[in-house]
Amino acid sequence: MNRRTSRRIPAPPAWLPVDPYILALVGTVVLAALLPASGTGADVAGGASTGAVALLFFLYGARLSTAEAVDGLKHWRLHLTVLACTFVVFPLLGLAGHALVPYVLTPQLQEGFLFLCLVPSTIQSSIAFTSMARGNVPAAICAGSFSSLAGILLTPLLAAVLLGGTGGGFSLDSLVKIVLQLLAPFLAGQVLRRWIGGFLGRHRKILGLVDRGSILLVVYTAFSEGMVAGIWHQVTPLRLGGLLAAEAVLLALMLTISGRGAKRLGFGREDAIAIQFAGSKKSLAAGLPMASVLFGAHASLAVLPLMLFHQMQLMVCAVIAKRRSRDPLPDDVAVPRQPVPVG
After folding, report:
1. d(CA 146, CA 85)
2. How far apart are CA 135 and CA 267, in angstroms?
3. What pLDDT digit, counting tens, does each position of 71-97 carry?
4. What's the mean pLDDT when you consider all of the chain?
5. With 50 as the cut, is the pLDDT of residue 10 above it?
C-alpha cells in the first residue's frame, strides 16, 4: 500500500507566544477602520463602552480578596519595590521619552508612550511567568493586586500631573468620570464581594469572556472615534517603527532595573523573579478603560503604545521565564556522599 505523506504546518516556537486575545484586538482595530461607528451608532457604542468600563472595575473589586491583600502585607518590602518600579521608575523613563519628539515619536505617540508608563502592573501574566520560572507565586499575586488597586488612584493622578492639559485634557469633569466609572464600581464590588464572591469564583471562565468582550468594545469605540476624526493619517510606518524601538528599549531597561535592583536590595531568587515580572509589566486590561476616560476622542492613539507593549512583554518574558525555569535550585543540588568507613 502507498502511504500518502502529509506535510504538517509548523507550529510557532514555544518561546514565541501568539496571544489569541491580541489577534482579537487587532481584528477589532481592523473592524473599526473598515466600519467605524458614527452618528447614532457612535452614541450607542460610547454608552455601551461606558457601561462596560464600569462593569470591568466592579468585577475587579468583587474578585479582590481583602483577606488575601491584608495577608500579603507581610511582604511589604517586595510590594513597595514593585510599586516603585511601576509608578516611579516607569514614569521617569516615560518622561525621558520627550527627547524622542519629534525625531522618533510624534507628540501624540509620546503622550501614549508616557501614559503606558503610568498604567498599573498586570496580574495574570505576572503570575504565569513567575510560576514558570519557579518564583514566589503568592507574592506575584499580591503584588499585581496591590498595583491594580493603587493604579485606580495613582494612574489618574499621575496623568493629571505629567500629562496636564495634553491628550484628552484632565479637568474636574475627568475626575468626576474617573470616580463614577472606575472607583465607585470598584468599591461597590468590594462591598458586595461577601455575597457574590462565591458565584464569581465558580464562573471564572464566563466572566473572563465578559472581561475581554468589554475591553474589545472599548477598543472598537476608541478606534472608531479616531477614524472619524482622521487622526490615523498622523501615524506612518516609520513612526510605528520608532515607537516599537522605543518600547523595546523601555522593556529592556525595566527588566534590567527590576531584576538587578531586587538582587541589590537583598531579595532571594524567588522574590527577585516575582519583582522582575511584576515590576516590568503593564496591564492592558486596566489601561484601556482608563484611557477611554482620560483621553476621550484621542484614546485610540493613546492606547496604541500600550497594545504594542503588551504583546512585546509577553514574548520577551516568555523567553526569560523559560530560561529561569532551568536555574538550579538549592534542593536540586546533589549533596556529595561521604565515604563509608571500612572495618
Report:
1. 13
2. 12
3. 666 788 999 999 999 999 999 999 999
4. 81
5. no
Neighbours of 67 (CB within 10 A): 7
Percent of the chain with pLDDT over 90: 27
Grid coordinates given for 264: 541589590
Length of the chain, in residues: 343
Name residues whose C-beta falls within 8 Å of residue 230's C-beta, 6 or more positions apart in sequence.
none
The three cell numbers locating residue 212: 475581554
Question: Is 122 within 8 Å of 285 (Cβ atoms)?
Answer: yes
Helix (H, G, I), strand (E, B) or coil at 247: helix
Which residues contact residue 225 at a Cβ distance below 8 angstroms, ignoring those fewer than 6 apart? 36, 42, 296, 297, 299, 300
Residues with Cβ within 8 Å of residue 83, at least 6 apart in sequence: 146, 147, 150
- For residues 224 and 37, the answer to whether their CB atoms sit within 8 Å is yes
For the residues 275-281, what does the mean pLDDT come to?
A: 95
Q: Classify burial at 105, counting beta carbons within 10 Å of its beta carbon; exposed 0-12, middle 13-18, buried 19 or more.
A: buried
> Would you give the DSSP letter of residue 280?
S
In the block, residue with C-alpha cell 504538517: 8
> For residue 134, which of 269, 261, 268 has the smallest C-alpha distance?
269
pLDDT of 146 higher than 90: no
- Which residues have C-beta within 8 Å of that of residue 343, sequence separation ≥ 6? none
Average pLDDT in the 203-225 region?
Answer: 80
Q: Would you say residue 342 has pLDDT above 60?
A: no
What's the CA gap between 14 and 18, in Å, rounded? 9
Q: Lowest-confidence range among 223-232, 288-297, 313-322?
A: 223-232
Closest CA to 19 of 323, 326, 307: 307
Q: How much is the CA Rg of the chain, to the nearest whole Å?
A: 22
Q: Report the alpha-carbon distance of residue 130 to residue 107 in Å, rounded.
A: 35
Give the helix ranges, DSSP H, for the chain. 20-34, 40-63, 66-72, 76-84, 90-96, 107-116, 124-132, 137-162, 172-178, 184-202, 204-229, 237-264, 269-279, 284-295, 299-324
